[in-house]
Give the backbone structure.
Amino acid sequence: MKQVPARALLWLALILLIALSVYGFYSQRLLSQHIWDPQGIRKLIWLLVLHTAVFAIVIAWKKARFVHILVVAGFVYAALSVGIVPLLAVAYFLFSSLLLGKAVVSALSGAQAKSASAAGPGNSIIALLAGLSVYVWIVGFLVRYPVNYSWLYALLLAFPVVWQPRLALNCLHEWYDAISSVEVKGRLALVALWAVAFLALAYWLIALKPEVSSDGLAMHLAIPAAIANFHRFPFDPRETVWAVMPMNGDWGFAISYLLGGEYAARLFNLSLFALAVALVGRVIRPWLSTASTLLVVALLASTPLAQHLSGSLFVENTWSVLLVGALVAGCRRDFLSAALLCGTAVATKFGAIAFVLAMAPLFALSIVRMAKSGEPKWRRVVVLATVFFAITAAPPYIHAYFATGNPVFPFLNSVFHSPFFDSTTSFSDGRFLAPLNWRTFFDLTFQSHRFQEGMDGAIGFHYFLLFPLALILIRRDSPKLAKAALWVAVVSFLLMFRTQSNLRYAYPALVLSAFPIASLLSRTKSMDPVFHKALCGVAIVSLALNVYFLPSAGWYHRGFFLNLSWNRGEVDRYIEESAPVRKLVEYVDRKNAGAAVAFVSTDQIAGLHRKAYVDNWHNDAYVRRIRSAQSTVECLGIMNDLGIRYVIAPTDQSGIPVREASIQWLLRELATPEFQFGKYYVASIEQVPVGQAGSAAHTAPDAALPAAIPGLYDDTSSHFSFSGPWTRDIQFIEPLFHSLIYTDRPGAYFRFAFVGTEISYVYTKASNRGIARLTIDGKEMAEVDLYSPTTLWQTRSTIRNLPRARHVLRVEILERKNPSASGRFVDVDGLEVH
């Protein structure tokens, strides 16, 4: 009788969540988004049909061998597409990590209390993660020296195999048995296995594409490629801001890259996600039937954000699987393994500290219980766990402190004040600062674009439909790990979103949510079989929707996979469309080996075998110098000082604005285009002595400026002539054509020649704005105060009743400002001539 109200509440909650989901779909028009490119949706349908046909044949023929056939087919296709070396490199790395980890976990087990257990479902995966943690810790020291050759890492990884040959054979048998142990009975199990196999195939095909992601080409592929080329880590924090950030994830990519190249790094990243999914599946298997276990695994694998992070080089899979492994180990009172994995996660991403803080009370409570029960080794466990966490977590922060004076450089620089970065610069991404409120959970699902660089639906739909029910049904007698995962997921999510509401940084919470969802299915099966079947139906519908929305978390895989095995030309087309800078980097590398390269409006430096400078925060010192240049002559002098001889920049037809005005002048006047690919081109900089640089437009007399006819001119127009340090901003959507150019340097100005009787100056009023003086043909016409307590976009000041003739407008920044203004910035969004 007591369960009747609970059942009614669950049915009511489920119906309400379904109704809200239907409302979210239609009110936010999720299905009207451009999720798939035409060829992508065709490939999705083709693959679904082919996979279903092969699945049916194999299941009818030899169901027990289905997983074996899937693994062999994937291996053969990958070998034909990218070669066998990347596959062997990743397998070798993971196998060596497993052997080393088993030795490490065995040693740690002997140092803990009797109640601690390193055994249980998923113990081999935790051991593998422990071995991986040791390897990336070692690499963190080796990369500082010119010893990073592929042969060295091949020997290093061989050590556990040579040391423990019998264990190596046992592990091979264990892997084979794990593949052979999948038993499928019942329709739901077949559907779930079909879904898991399809998702595995989809992820595999995407991982075999070349890297095109912005983060990958700017950092996560650039780092291992540079280590392979220079045999050490060549980046200096005085020039490259991210050079001392926690990089354990990149050290894992580096090992893979050194052994098997770019595709090995991508496959290693996918392997980390596969390990997280496998660990979840192994742990929840005792709670559920095979069908329900496969269904939970399929839901986790169908998360669009997971496909985005596994299909490109991001480090989120690294710290996510480490944190999941740490929680599993901690719930078994294997605190030393948990400390090792937590420390490695924190040395991978600073944001992991939020998850460690959420886990700490749970581990502390378990240790208190150990002490109360009279466990003799509990003090030793506390000391050793603290030491292991410190040893694994601290190195990147200690290195950052001694290299820059800021242990979390460049973050919190207003607190630690490193001289190598502007202390006033904030790292809070203005796009993702949504406050937590009662709509947040709904918005995460149906307005996902507010929380990540993608489309709506990127989080997947099963979290919205199932996680609240799991929260309702959690009980004291629920599995310990389900309760712990629920606590950590919620607390860490709240901690992360208080500072940055970027869904990517809360990604481990999504993986951890699989445990309470599994507990929900387990409890409802015995509590209310009808409701359990309804939940399974909801899960299957969510799974289908997730598959359709797979590319929604990003922009890289809307065309789905590439036909690498029989259409190699598709790779060039893909790179031309998605990452043309890669081809330009190859071109520059064949030129003068000593020359540096400036990247304009892109930071995709991966593969460059020389020094690179990009025009964003990655190279803050360089950007500050460029912004201080008040002429082409000064900009050329900076390029000469830095040894820059080539520039990679967007073409005029690309629609991609050049952020720094001085570089825009340089490209127009002193750069000679050499090679174009896609929307970017390579130009060499003329070797003109600084004192003899040609006549720049901004130094030309008024009479020489080209006159504009009536019309609307954006700040990117070539009719503008700027003098002083001006910076272009393209992060806002409110300005004309989504760009404006600004400065706060008194005396800086711009000129604009036109033929007309009226001209409107379009600008932004804001709290940090100064005062501009407007003159026409040398005669002062007005002073415009751009200050406003609130931001007013596309504000206009118009000068009328001019003679019908050629005129020159000059807008100059004054020293004076409104007393209420916090700065003296002046911008130009555009000009309109009448």
